[in-house]
């Protein structure tokens, strides 16, 4: 208790978080190298979206408004005629639940911004520029516009790469000739490597694997994906006390 | 289908997806200032994306053949070593095409 006043004064000593064009520019410049990496995924997403039956414009619209790589690729896996809308939107929500934590982590800085600036910037949150922004803000920077700037870099390259990929996908008639039927599997393996967080993942991932394989055998449609994911999540929550 | 076509049903699903995504991004900022989430729930949320990816991969790999399994191993190995997505994908594609002609 006795040390709380000094703690508070340390907080108020920090200059307020600012939101400037220089911050946007700084974020954009430093976000561009990682945005180029994201563009690789964007091209693959565009090709896959076109193969799944989306038009170039529809693929571009999805990238521009959803802006969530893993969820978009998973959606393409689910895509069919007619579109299973509830499964697609529900899976998008579940896959993106991690953004809840990422948004919460921005709280100490973004609560000082106006709602328009804070909630506008948050639209441009992606895994990569969020991590970059947290590093920037934790190191003492007061540039509240950094998330927006780095997010804009990702947005521009993500949408452009989607268009390039979708146009390329339009000229490919038989995907298996180029092994493209295997691309989605390969993309998910690559994403899984990126998400691997050490030995603690073994149990939830193994649970998800077994439940999904069984679910695919005995359940209709693609519900095994959500079921397996939730099973892995439940196992992790139950394990936590140990 | 024209490349510029926008089908109303597709646009409706995309709008639904974008609202669902924005709800997660803004929801964390909005809700978590009012309630505290236990570390237990936090750990569960963090494990979700990986568990979902594995759930997609599981049946795909089980239903695949030796060519897909070996090519999958190639993607895994290249990705772990180089962390280069495009290189891992290209290696995997080359492997699957080569293996399918052999096996």
Structural class of chain A: mainly alpha
What percent of the residues of chain A sit in helical stretches (DSSP H or I)?
over 70%
- The number of helical segments of chain A is 13
Give helix and strand order of chain A, one letter per element, not per position: HHHHHHHHHHHHH
Helix content of chain B: over 70%
* Beta strands of chain A, count: 0
Number of separate helices of chain B: 4
Given as residue ranges, the uncertain stretches of chain B (5+ residues, pLDDT < 50) are: none
Structural class of chain B: mainly alpha
The largest interface is: A-B, 100 and 75 residues
Major β-sheet annotation of chain A: none
End-to-end distance of chain A, in Å?
32 Å
Largest sheet of chain B at a glance?
none
What share of residues are in beta strands of chain B?
under 5%
Provide the domain count of chain A: 2
Bulk shape of chain A:
globular
Unreliable segments of 5+ consecutive residues of chain A: 1-10
């Amino acid at each position: 208790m006795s040390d709380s006043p000094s703690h508070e004064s340390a907080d108020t000593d920090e200059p307020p978080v600012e939101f400037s064009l220089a911050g946007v520019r700084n974020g954009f410049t430093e976000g561009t190298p990682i945005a180029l990496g994201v563009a690789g995924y964007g091209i693959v997403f565009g090709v896959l979206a076109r193969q799944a039956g989306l038009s170039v414009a529809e693929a571009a619209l999805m990238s521009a408004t959803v802006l969530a790589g893993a969820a978009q690729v998973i959606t393409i896996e689910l895509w069919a005629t007619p579109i299973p809308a509830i499964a697609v939107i529900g899976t998008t929500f579940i896959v993106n639940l991690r953004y809840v934590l990422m948004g919460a982590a921005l709280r100490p800085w973004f609560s000082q911004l106006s709602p328009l600036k804070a909630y506008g910037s948050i639209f441009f949150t992606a895994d990569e520029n969020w991590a970059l922004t947290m590093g920037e803000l934790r190191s003492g920077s007061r540039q509240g516009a950094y998330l927006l700037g780095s997010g804009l870099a990702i947005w521009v390259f993500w949408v452009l790469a989607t268009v390039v990929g979708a146009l390329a996908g339009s000229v490919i008639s038989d995907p298996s000739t180029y092994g493209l039927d295997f691309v989605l599997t390969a993309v998910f393996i690559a994403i899984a490597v990126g998400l691997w967080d050490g030995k603690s993942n073994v149990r939830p991932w193994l649970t998800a694997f077994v439940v999904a394989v069984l679910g695919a055998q005995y359940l209709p449609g693609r519900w095994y994906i959500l079921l397996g994911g939730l099973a892995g999540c439940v196992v992790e929550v139950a394990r936590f006390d140990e | 289908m024209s490349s510029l076509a926008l089908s109303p049903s597709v646009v409706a699903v995309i709008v639904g997806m974008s609202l669902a995504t924005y709800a997660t991004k803004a929801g964390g900022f909005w809700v978590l200032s009012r309630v505290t989430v236990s570390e237990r729930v936090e750990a569960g949320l963090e494990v979700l994306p990986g568990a979902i990816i594995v759930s997609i991969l599981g049946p795909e790999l089980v239903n695949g053949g030796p060519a897909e399994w070996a090519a999958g191993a190639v993607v895994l190995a290249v990705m772990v070593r180089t962390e280069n997505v495009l290189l891992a994908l290209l290696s995997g594609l080359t492997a699957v095409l080569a293996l399918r002609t052999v096996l």
